[in-house]
Amino acid sequence: MTQENIGLAFESMARADPDNARAHLLDAEAAFAAALDVYTPEHMAYYHDKATCALARVRDKLAALDA
Question: Which of 20, 37, 44, 64 is most buried by a 10 A CB count?
């Protein structure tokens, strides 16, 4: 849960600090990926889905920055 919360915090920082959004989103991506090391679909399906969606959202934001 801590990694997921860290990811959410970095995602918020990206919104608040657009000049450094890419760096914050990369940190968020790493945090959500770390959460998925613990949140397995077999044992924590709800949290796994939630973190997977958050990771996809952050990756979409990174792709939009590169476009």
Answer: 44
Q: Are 4 and 50 in contact (CB under 8 A)?
A: yes
Instruction: Give the structural domain span for 33.
Output: 2-66
HSE of 3, CA atoms in CB hemisphere, 13 A: 18
The residue behind tokens 């608040």 is 16
Helices H, strands E: what count in the chain? 3, 0
Per-residue confidence (pLDDT) for residue 67, from 0 to 100: 85
pTM higher than 0.85: yes
User: Quick one: tokens of 56?
Assistant: 């996809």
Report how many domains make up the chain.
1
- pLDDT tens digit string along 12-58? 999 999 999 999 999 999 999 999 999 999 999 999 999 999 999 99
